[in-house]
Write a structure and sequence with these properties.
Elements: H1 6-19, H2 26-33, H3 37-49, E1 53-56, E2 62-65, H4 74-80, H5 99-123, H6 128-143
Antiparallel strand pairs: 1-2
């Protein structure tokens, strides 16, 4: 299953925006998101409508955060993005009429629905300030020469 990376990509871009001294252009954000500026503008439009970012036109313009880091939860961002999939979607029906497949699919659908609800509830309690603090901690460890990466998680 291919993972939808819009949420993590946009969170990455928002943290870059929080560190920038001036508004970031769509071109700069496109580099963060590994996409093109048109996709950035379309993505940011949803975030602007939710009040998460502000766009400034003209020379020196671009995108900046519309709220403090502590005022933006991951759930806010997820909702503004149109709630991209956080878990696998319902399984496909490959053998219509098969009672075993129907039972398996029903169980999976229920499990996925419960997992989505738990993830969404957790996202409501994590702010961009939390992510920025985690990033700062990781940078401090990196500069101190501490091992990092998935094999060295604390």
């Amino acid at each position: 299953m291919k993972r939808d990376s819009r949420l993590s990509g946009v969170l990455h871009a928002l943290l870059h925006m929080s560190q920038a001294e001036a508004p970031m252009t769509s071109e700069q954000l496109a580099v963060c998101l590994h996409t093109n500026p048109v996709v950035v503008r379309r993505t940011m439009a949803g975030l602007r409508e939710a009040g998460l970012v502000i766009s400034e036109r003209g020379h020196g313009g671009g995108w900046r955060l519309g709220r403090p880091l502590s005022g933006i939860t991951l759930r806010d961002v997820h909702t503004a993005l149109g709630e991209p999939a956080l878990t696998p979607e319902s399984p496909a029906v490959e053998s219509p009429g098969c009672l075993v497949e129907a039972a398996v699919n029903r169980s999976l659908e229920d499990a996925y629905a419960e997992a989505r609800a738990l993830i969404e509830a957790r996202l409501a309690h994590i702010t961009l300030a939390d992510l920025a603090a985690d990033f700062a901690d990781r940078m401090a460890d990196f500069k101190a020469g501490a091992p990092h990466g998935p094999d060295h998680a604390a």
